[in-house]
Structures are given as structure tokens and as C-alpha cells.
């Protein structure tokens, strides 16, 4: 194909492209002109429609004004014509309403009468019922008097039993048994166990006398807490038996004085010096809240005075709180002991694992040395032994089995890293 022919084709293509572009431009110009003409026509039509709409609106407004005027005139005429007929109709309707109201009033009067008659009967029945209730009240009043008499007898019996109980509590043996039972019950409620967490009637020998507190509570860490329950109660019991308030107040003042005196006795005994590892105070237990309350009523500074003597006044409520704190301390001590044992066991396990890893490391090094020796032996076999052995095949020596080269061991034995010592772990933890 010649160059002239190719150039001719290119020129023809360019000419066709230029002619096509001109044709498209002419078509676009023609469509654009038609669009302008159509737009002008539509704008003129829109303006005509606007003008027609404006004229229709003016005509509608004028028609509305005329209709409104005509309606006003017609309404005035109709109102004048219907006014008289309406008044006549209203008079007739009012008369009908009056007749109906009279009939309805008679019906309502009969209905009210029918309602009032049952109410009257109900009131009569209520009057009879009230009379019956009054009769029952009188009978119940008689029964209540009998019940009060019975309660009075029970009260006298209770006072007698209370008197007997007071007399029994005046005996030191009974009072001691009561105090011991109360202490034992309280420590059991607090969650302590006898002979494990506390001892009743423990004793120790001092320099010149024997000491026998009512209870010694063992504290965590080998310490002890001394509890004394020998609070004097004679004057309090006399106050319960007193016949008038003046004598009762006198005995209660003596009760407060005896409690203060017992505080002095406990302060002088200094149990914290007689029992090893004992806090420098002693618990003075009063077996009832009323014992302490009565003493504080007549000696408001008793608590501060006792604290100065290193004596803590405790009632059952406060003693339970103290002993529950001790029980909680024992639980924490047990948890700490378990944690210590776990720590020791962990350290021992760490030591054993480290030793085992040492042995594993030595075994790995031995395996690595064996691998290297094996590979050296295989290399020596391939270089020195197998070439000479293959010559038998070249000499046509009958061989029953072929020689197979052993493979080399290229993968190294994985090394084990021994862990750090426990001291290093502890340092990281801190």
C-alpha cells in the first residue's frame, strides 16, 4: 500500500469529520432558533392567560358584591315576615313546656316519695341495729373487765417471777453461770470457736496473785484480748425492787458508783501486763444494755473515765461488734496464710521448673552435638566409603541390595531458655 494512498485516506477522514461537525452545528443552530420562537410564543400565550384571569377575577368580585347586596335585602324582608310567626310558635311551645313540666314535677314528687320511704325504713332498722350494738358493747365491757382482772393476775405472777429471778441473780453462782452462758452465746454469734479462738475462765499466775478473767479472746498474730464480766449488779437489782422512785434513784446512783469502782479494780489488775502480746486495755462486759444505760444516767463521764483507765465498757451489742471484727481478722489471717503457702509453693514450683528446664537444655545441647556428629559421619561416608563401595558395581560384582545414602539432619534442635530466678519475678511485680 503506497504512502499516497494512506495520506488520501487520512485526508478523506479529516474532511468527513469536519463536514460532520459543520452539519451538527447547523442542526444545533436551527433547533436553537426553533426553541427561541417556541419560547416567545409560549410567553405571549402566558401573558394572554394572565390578562384573561385578571378580568375573570374582577368580574367575580363585582358579581360577589351584587349578590351580597341582594342577599341582605332578601334577609331583611324574610326576617320581618317571620318575626310574628316565630313569636306565635314560641308562645305555643312555651305552653307545651309548662304542661310537660307540671307532669314531670308530679312524677318526680312520686319518685322522691318512693325513695324516702325505704330510707325511713332503713333508719328504723339502723336504730334497732344501734340498740343491738349497744347491748353487745355492754356485754363486751363486762368481758373486758374480766380480761383486765386476768391480766392483773398475770402481771402479779410476772412480778413474782421477776422477783424470784432478781433474788436468784443476787447469788454469785447463778450470776456467774448467767454471765458465762451470755459470753458463750455472744462469741458463738460472732463466729468464734471455743478453745480455738477463745477460752473461758482462763487463768495465769502473776508475781503475787493469780489472775482469772472470764474470757480471753485470741487475736491474729498471737495476741490476746481479755474480757471481764464480773460487773456488780446488786444495787441495780435493789433498784428494781424499790417501792418508790426516790429509793430506786438512790440504788441506781450506788450502781453507777460500783461500776466506776470495778473500772478502777480492772485498771489496777492491768491484764495487759499479765498476758503476753495483749493490747493495753481490757473489755468490761455488762450483760444487759440497761445496766450500762442506768449507770450512765447517774455518771455521764463514766465512759471517758473508763477509757482513761484502759477499760472499754461493752454491752452485748458492742461486744458482738468487737468479736465480729476479731472473727474477720482471723479470716483475713487465714487468707494471708493461704497466700503465703501459695507463694512458697509457687517459688518451689518455679525452682523445680527451672531445674527441669536446665536438664532439658543440657539434653538439647547433647542432641545438637549428636546431630552434628551424625552429619559429619554422613559426610565422611559420602566422601570416603560410598565411592569405593560403588566400584564393586562397576566391576560387575553381584550385589544383593543397593547402597542407600543416609539423609543428613539439617534442622537444628530448638534451644530452651531457662526462666529468671524468683527474685527477678518479684522485682518485676514490684
Architecture overview:
By secondary structure, the chain is of the alpha/beta class. Helix content is 76%, strand content 6%. It has helices spanning 3-169, 172-189, 234-241, 245-269, 271-274, 289-298, 302-308, 316-394, 422-429; strands at 198-200, 204-205, 210-211, 215-219, 223-228, 282-285, 311-314. The radius of gyration is 61 Å and the shape is flat. The two termini are 93 Å apart. The relative contact order is 0.04. The model is unreliable at 421-430 (pLDDT under 50).
Q: Helicity range of the residues?
A: over 70%
Helix tally equals 9
Written as H for each helix and E for each strand, in order along the chain, the element string is: HHEEEEEHHHEHHEHH
Radius of gyration: 61 Å
- Secondary-structure-derived class: alpha/beta
Proportion of residues in extended strands: 5-15%
Unreliably modeled segments: 421-430
Average pLDDT over all residues:
75
Question: What strand order characterises the main sheet?
Answer: 1-4-5-6-7
Task: Output the CATH topology of the domain at 164-314.
Answer: Trna Endonuclease, Chain: A, domain 1
For the termini, the CA-CA separation is 93 Å
CATH class identity of the domain at 164-314: Alpha Beta
Second rung of CATH, namely the architecture of the domain at 164-314? 3-Layer(aba) Sandwich
Overall form? flat
Number of strands: 7
Described by strand count, sense and barrel closure, the largest sheet is: 5 strands, mixed
